[in-house]
Amino acid sequence: MEKELVEFLARSLVDHPECVTVNQVEGEKTIVLELSVAPEDTGKIIGKQGRIAKALRTVLSATATKGGKKATLEILG
Questions:
Q1: Cα(45)–Cα(27) distance, rounded to whole angstroms?
Q2: Cα separation values, 55 from 11, 27, 28, 51, Å
Q3: H or E element in which residue 72 lies
Q4: Fewer CB atoms < 10 Å away: N or C end of the chain?
Q5: Which positions, given as ranges, span the membrane (predicted)?
Q6: pTM score, two decimals?
Q7: Strand partners, 33
């Protein structure tokens, strides 16, 4: 569920939604999501002073907490 949420949000923010990929690495109590976008869209995902990235991480954290896990989002260029 977390993977699909991040993918949906990222696709709606970028100019090249076909280049958005999310890789999920799941541990016992932790989920790591690796978000990859087109190089020219990296700035749109991070946002000014990292505001969009922080908002994405907040939403992801809230969703994962509901499932009893912790989640982190890594943005790959």
A1: 25
A2: 15, 23, 25, 6
A3: strand 70-76
A4: N
A5: none
A6: 0.88
A7: 24, 73
